[in-house]
C-alpha cells in the first residue's frame, strides 16, 4: 500500500492503541459465547460453581420432551415460512431487476423491505390484533403467516444482489436461441443465482428460528417455539441444562453462518 | 418480460405485505383510538383515553393530573437507544479502521468474526450476559479474585441493559462503517500528513467526513431496533426499568389494555418513521432498501 518503506511507528495511517483496542473488542465479542459453551460442561447444578467436566446436561436436554416439541414447532414454522418467503422474494426480485420501465419500482422495493424498516414489536402487535379480529386460532398458521412476512426481505436482498451482479449476456443468448422464458429461467438464470437463493433462504431460516418478539406475542394454542420455550426456562432460573441447549443452538448457528459465508464468497468470485 | 409476469411476479409480495403489515398497522391505529373492552380486548368506539393516559392520570376526583410516568419510559427508551448508538459508533470506528489496515485475507476473516455472533440466536446472546453479570456470576468472581470488595448487583441495571443492547446490535454498526472506511483512499491521508495535519486533525477533517455515510447508516440500523427492543430490558433489566417495547408487550399480556398498548405502538412507530424520513432526506441516493 505504502510506496516507500515506513516503520509501523511512523506509519501515518496508524493510530496508537488501535491494535490492543481491537483485540479487546474481539475478546468481548466472543466472551459470552465461550462462557456459555464452557459452563455447559459443568457437572455442578449451580451454574456459576465449577464442579468438574461432564456431558450429562446434554443428555438431560435431549430427553426434555417440551424442548423437543418446541424445536419441532420451530422447525415446522421455519421450513414453511422460508419456502414461502424465498419463492415470493425470488418472483419479486426477478421482476424488480429484469422488467424495464417498471411502474412503482421504488415503492415496490420499499414494500418488500418494509419489515426491515419497522420495529418488530409494532408488527407483532399488529398481526396479533389482526388475527384476533379474524378469529384465527390455529397457532401454527398464525406463526407461519407472520414469519413469512418478516423473512421475505432477508431472502430478497441476497437474491436481488445476485441478479443485479450477473451479466445479462447469458439470458440474452438463451433468448437468441429461442428458449421460452421459463426454460431460459430454469436452465440459465436459476443455476447462476442459486448461491444467492440459498444464502437468502438460509438467512430467512435463521431469522425465523431465532425470532422471539413475534412468536412470544402470538404464543398460544400449543404453538410455543424454541426461543419462547428457552425464555420460559430462563425465567425459572439459570441451569446447566440451559447452557447445554444454548451451546447446541450456537453450534447450529455457526454451521449455518459458515455455509452462507462460503456461498456468498463463491457467488462473488463467479460474479 | 411479459405484462402478466410483471404483475403476477410482484403480486404475492404486495399481497403479503398489505395483508400482514399495512392493514394490521391501520387496525392498530384504529384500536389506539378505541375503547378498552370490559374483559380485555377493545370495543369499536372513538375514544382518546389511551393517548391522554400517556400524559395524564385520573385523580381521586376524576380530575386529570399530569403524570410523567409514561413520558419517562419514552425518554428512557430514547436515552438508552441513543447511548447504545453512541457506544457502537465509538467501538465500530477504531475497530473498522484497524480491520481496513490488514491484508485482504485477514480482512475477510475479521469481518467474518464480526458477523458470526450475529447469527447466534438473540435469546442465547442475551442469556449469556445473564450468566456473566448475574448474582455470583463470572464478573463478580473475577472482581473478587483481584481483591475487589464483595460487590453484587451488576444485573438489573441500566448498564447491564445497555451492555446487552450494544452486544446485540454492534455488527449492524461495524459493517456499514467498515464499508466506508475501507473505501478511503490512503493518498488522502498521506496528503493531509504532507500538509502538516496531525493524526487528530486528519481524523477530524479527513477520515470522519469520509466515514459519515457509513456512520449514518449504521446509526439508523442500531437506533431503530433499539427503540423497540424487548429482550434486554426484560432479562438484563429485570423488568423493573420499562422501555417502550416492554411497555407495549405488557399491555397485550398481563395488563391487557389493548388500546393503550396500541397507542404506545403508534408513538413508537411515529418516532421510527420520523428517523427514517430524516435519513431519507439527508441521503436520498444512499438507500439500499428503497426508502
Descriptive notes:
The complex is a heterodimer of chains A (271) and B (291). Chain A is mainly α and 271 residues long. Chain A is built from eleven helices and no strands. Residues 5-9 of chain A have low confidence and may be disordered. Chain A has helices at residues 18-39, 56-62, 65-98, 105-117, 120-134, 139-165, 169-176, 181-210, 213-218, 226-235, 240-270. Chain A has two domains: 15-57, no CATH class; 65-270, MetI-like fold (Orthogonal Bundle). In chain A, helix 3 (65-98) packs across helix 6 (139-165) and helix 3 (65-98) packs across helix 10 (226-235). Chain B has 291 residues and is mainly alpha-helical. Chain B folds into two domains: 23-67 and 257-291, no CATH class; 71-182 and 218-241, MetI-like fold, CATH 1.10.3720.10. Helices cover 71% and strands 3% of the residues of chain B. Chain B is built from twelve helices and four strands, in the order H-E-E-H-E-E-H-H-H-H-H-H-H-H-H-H. In chain B, strands 1-2 form a two-stranded antiparallel ribbon. In chain B, strands 3-4 form a two-stranded antiparallel sheet. In chain B, a hairpin with a 5-residue loop joins strand 3 (56-58) and strand 4. The model of chain B has no long low-confidence stretch (mean pLDDT 87). Classes of the chains: A mainly alpha (271), B mainly alpha (291). At the A-B interface, helix 1, helix 3, helix 4, helix 5 and helix 6 of A face helix 1, helix 3, helix 4, helix 5 and helix 8 of B.
A few lines on this structure:
The complex is a heterodimer of chains A (271) and B (291). Chain A is an all-alpha fold. Chain A is 75% helix and 0% strand.
Query: What does the overall shape of chain A look like?
Result: globular
Report how far apart the termini of chain B are: 26 Å
Specify the CATH architecture of the largest domain in chain B: Orthogonal Bundle
Rg calc of chain A:
24 Å
- SS elements, strand count of chain A: 0
Order of helices and strands of chain A: HHHHHHHHHHH
Quickly count the helices of chain B.
12
Sequence stretches where pLDDT stays below 50 over 5 or more residues of chain B: none
Strand content bin of chain B: under 5%
- The CATH topology of the largest domain in chain A comes to MetI-like fold
The largest sheet of chain A is: none
**Mean pLDDT across every amino acid position of chain A:** 88
- The strand line-up of the biggest sheet of chain B is 1-2
Tally of structural domains of chain A: 2
Going by CATH, the homologous superfamily of the largest domain in chain B would be: MetI-like
Helix/strand structural class of chain A: mainly alpha
Write the CATH fold name of the largest domain in chain B. MetI-like fold
The rounded distance between the terminal residues' Cα atoms of chain A is 26 Å
Percent range for helical residues of chain B?
Answer: over 70%
Amino acid at each position: 500500500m505504502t510506496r516507500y518503506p515506513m516503520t509501523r511507528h511512523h506509519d501515518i495511517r496508524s493510530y496508537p492503541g488501535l491494535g490492543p483496542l481491537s483485540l479487546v473488542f474481539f475478546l468481548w465479542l466472543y466472551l459470552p459465547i465461550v462462557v456459555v459453551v464452557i459452563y455447559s460442561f459443568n457437572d455442578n447444578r449451580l451454574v456459576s460453581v465449577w464442579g468438574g467436566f461432564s456431558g450429562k446436561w446434554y443428555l438431560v436436554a435431549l430427553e426434555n420432551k417440551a424442548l423437543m416439541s418446541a424445536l419441532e414447532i420451530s422447525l415446522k414454522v421455519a421450513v414453511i415460512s422460508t419456502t414461502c418467503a424465498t419463492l415470493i422474494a425470488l418472483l419479486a426480485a426477478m421482476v424488480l431487476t429484469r422488467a424495464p420501465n417498471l411502474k412503482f419500482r421504488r415503492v415496490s422495493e420499499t414494500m418488500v423491505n418494509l419489515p426491515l424498516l419497522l420495529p418488530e414489536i409494532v408488527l407483532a402487535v399488529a398481526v396479533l390484533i389482526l388475527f384476533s379480529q379474524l378469529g384465527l386460532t390455529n397457532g401454527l398458521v398464525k406463526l407461519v403467516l407472520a414469519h413469512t412476512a418478516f423473512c421475505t426481505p432477508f431472502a430478497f436482498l441476497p437474491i436481488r444482489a445476485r441478479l443485479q451482479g450477473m451479466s445479462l449476456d447469458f439470458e440474452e443468448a438463451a433468448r437468441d436461441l429461442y428458449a421460452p422464458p421459463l426454460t431460459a429461467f430454469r436452465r440459465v438464470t436459476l443455476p447462476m443465482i442459486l448461491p444467492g437463493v440459498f444464502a437468502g433462504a438460509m438467512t430467512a431460516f435463521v431469522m425465523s428460528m431465532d425470532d422471539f418478539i413475534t412468536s412470544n406475542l402470538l404464543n398460544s394454542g400449543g404453538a410455543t417455539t424454541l426461543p419462547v420455550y428457552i425464555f420460559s426456562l430462563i425465567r425459572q432460573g439459570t441451569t446447566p441444562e440451559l447452557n447445554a441447549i444454548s451451546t447446541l443452538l450456537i453450534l447450529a448457528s455457526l454451521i449455518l453462518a459458515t455455509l452462507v459465508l462460503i456461498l456468498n464468497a463463491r457467488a462473488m468470485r463467479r460474479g | 418480460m411479459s405484462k402478466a409476469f410483471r404483475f403476477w411476479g410482484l403480486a404475492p409480495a404486495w399481497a403479503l405485505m398489505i395483508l400482514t403489515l399495512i392493514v394490521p398497522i391501520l387496525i392498530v391505529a384504529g384500536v389506539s383510538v378505541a375503547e378498552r373492552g370490559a374483559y380485555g380486548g377493545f370495543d369499536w368506539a372513538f375514544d382518546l383515553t389511551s393517548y391522554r393516559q400517556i400524559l395524564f392520570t385520573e385523580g381521586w376526583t376524576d380530575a386529570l393530573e399530569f403524570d410523567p410516568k409514561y413520558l419517562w419510559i419514552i425518554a428512557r427508551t430514547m436515552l438508552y437507544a441513543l447511548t447504545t448508538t453512541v457506544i457502537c459508533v465509538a467501538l465500530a470506528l477504531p475497530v473498522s479502521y484497524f480491520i481496513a489496515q490488514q491484508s485482504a485475507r485477514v480482512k475477510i476473516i475479521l469481518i467474518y468474526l464480526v458477523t458470526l455472533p450475529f447469527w447466534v440466536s438473540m435469546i442465547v446472546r442475551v442469556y449469556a450476559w445473564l450468566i456473566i453479570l448475574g448474582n455470583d456470576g463470572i464478573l463478580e468472581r473475577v472482581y473478587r479474585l483481584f481483591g475487589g470488595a464483595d460487590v453484587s448487583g451488576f444485573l438489573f441495571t441500566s448498564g447491564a441493559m445497555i451492555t446487552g443492547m450494544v452486544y446485540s446490535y454492534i455488527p449492524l454498526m461495524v459493517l456499514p462503517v467498515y464499508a466506508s472506511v475501507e473505501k478511503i483512499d490512503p493518498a488522502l491521508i498521506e496528503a493531509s500528513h504532507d500538509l502538516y495535519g496531525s493524526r487528530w486533525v486528519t481524523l477530524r477533517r479527513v477520515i470522519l467526513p469520509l466515514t459519515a455515510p457509513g456512520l449514518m447508516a449504521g446509526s439508523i440500523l442500531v437506533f431503530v431496533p433499539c427503540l423497540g427492543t424487548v429482550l434486554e430490558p426484560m432479562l438484563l433489566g429485570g423488568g423493573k426499568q420499562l422501555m417502550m417495547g416492554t411497555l407495549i408487550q405488557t399491555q397485550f399480556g398481563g395488563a391487557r389494555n389493548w388500546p393503550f398498548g396500541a397507542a404506545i405502538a403508534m408513538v413508537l412507530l411515529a418516532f421510527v418513521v420520523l428517523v427514517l424520513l430524516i435519513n431519507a432526506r439527508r441521503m436520498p441516493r444512499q438507500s439500499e432498501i428503497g426508502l
